[in-house]
Design goal:
The complex is a heterodimer. By secondary structure, chain A is mostly helical. Helices cover 69% and strands 1% of the residues of chain A. Chain A has a two-stranded antiparallel sheet. In chain A, a hairpin with an 8-residue loop joins β1 and β2. In chain B, strands 6-7-8-3-9-10 form a six-stranded mixed sheet, with helices on both faces. In chain B, strands 13-12-11-14-20 form a five-stranded antiparallel sheet. Chain B has a five-stranded antiparallel sheet with strand order 15-19-16-17-18, with no helix packed on it. In chain B, β16 and β17 form a beta hairpin. Classes of the chains: A mainly alpha, B alpha+beta.
Amino acid sequence: MGIAFTSSAPKQSGSPLKSGKIVLVLLLPGLLYLGMFFMIPLVSLLITSVETPDASGAIGMYQYGFDLSAYQHVITDYAPQIGRSFGYALLATVFALLISYPLAYFVGVRLRSRPLIQKLTLTLVIAPFFISFLLRTIAWKQIFADDSVTMNFVRNLMHLDPSFHFLGTPGAVVWGLVYNFIPFMTLPLYTSLERLDLRLLEAAGDLYASPAAVFRRVTLPLTMPGVISGTLLTFIPITGDYVNASRDFLGSPDTSMIGNMVQADFLQNSDYPSASALSAVLMVVILVIVGVYVKRTGTEDLL
Amino acid sequence: MKEFVPAGADLELRAIRKEFPGFTAIENLDLHIPAGEFFALLGPSGCGKTTTLRIIAGLEQPTSGQVLLGGQDVTFTKPHERPVNTVFQSYALFPHMSIVENVAFGLRRKKAADPVAKAMDALNMVELGHVAERRPQQLSGGQQQRVALARALVNRPSLLLLDEPLGALDLKLRRQMQIELKAIQMEVGLTFLHVTHDQEEAMDMADTVAVMNKGRIEQMGAPEALYERPKTAFVSKFLGQSNLFVGEIADSSGDSFSISVAGNRITVPKHRAEKQAGKIAIGVRPEKVEFHRTDPAAASHLNILGPGVIKDIRFTGVSNQYLIEIPNVGDVIVFAQNVGISPVIELGEKVWISFKVEHAFGLADLPVGDEE
């Protein structure tokens, strides 16, 4: 219940100067780590994004400069991929939430009286992590392959056209995204729901709230921190995902997302400024979306 | 949703039985609470009183039996469809809402007109109008308790259930809240059902007290009647303190009969005895007992026991508590008011005790350990 109970840390006792030093010493490893592996790469990324092609004209060679043409290029030429990334991410996040909430509610609330089964179920939620997600995604590729048993069965069952296929469609990509990221949604939701004070639900029922009203007025608001962290933990990585949408896995050239473009520009076209500019654009858009989202839902305490 | 009754409604429980896996919480409970009464359900923890309350609120389903509210069968009515509100032991205030929104919650669900204005009125009644915009966790325990009360009362339920709502408060605040609660009940005229394990609280506030033990109601009545004439060993010990003497009826004459306990004769009037034959338990309240340093002259209106030895003396302010050990009889508790100069009496001193026959009461059962 982070919304309600987050409060400022208790005041330090003792000499402020001394405790300040201790805090600094304790923070130092973390700050160093962030500096070396986050700040420096970030600055390097931004510098690369504004580099100009080398005077020699050699492919893949760039020199320092301040050239914003890469930004112009990615924003105009990659608009479909950018739109797709956020569209798929939104869809996959919504599906993951719709699937995860009842699951997390069941495990976190209904199974409370049976701790053993509760822990076991929770393990099952995490269990897929034990296998490489590339393997798992390839498994889906085989399941959805045009001549697979599954697809033949589905085609027969739903009387679909023999030419109907699923692999390579946006549907398959979103499916893969939901599947791969669902534990990131379920776990924060579970944490919120597991701490939910059920006496509050009884009180709401006692105060004439129907089960639907209890959910809308009490359960959901009180588990909002879990919903927010779950959606952020799925939405953000999904926008940058380049596996599911790749034509080697569940996608096709028509489903490529930002991640696929970054990969192509960086590894195939050696167009480092474009790859960097695209990454920077992705980052800024995510920051804006997350900022607005968190502000609107009133859970600043979470960040 | 059912029509809400504007004033208090009477509650009737018919043959309620509640079984949980492994144990029976309520055996066979019949209870009738007239409209407008302040009724207390008193019992030790685990006696089934909270389960009874939860069944009335609709939070539990009875295994068998019926719940009637204002004559209507509500046994299978969902909690949110019952004109009943509860003040929970934990208060259960919604932490994500302001105080006034907490109070307006029920009104909003019922789609009542002017929920905020009514909520403010209710908050003013419990003198908390000034904290309306705060969050529950910013309030003290006593304030939260009053908010919980306002949140329930504002809906004008036919029946208000109080689940040990004063349990978490300190003694002084609890006394103050008891007075306020009683005043509010008289003012609004609703039916109150108060569940508590605090016998003083129950006797102080309720018109009628039902003493519950092991899923059954042992005795029910006005607090004075319960105290004056407890009918079972449990009630005599749970509601105040009692000295109990057990023996076979030795002598029956006219309107009284006597038992003999280790050579001491104890007489009880027949109209104050539940059981008229065989082995019975006779009790007396500690404040009705006096002690003497010399053997008092036997008289037909007095029960005399002794001599015994003073084992313990406790000074509690207005009175002293003495524990007197009488050989072959057991320990007897005596409360003596500190009026005038109390007799100088010391540990180990030899004393006799006496009490009036008219103060004795005969129980329907025998204390634990003395059963046949």
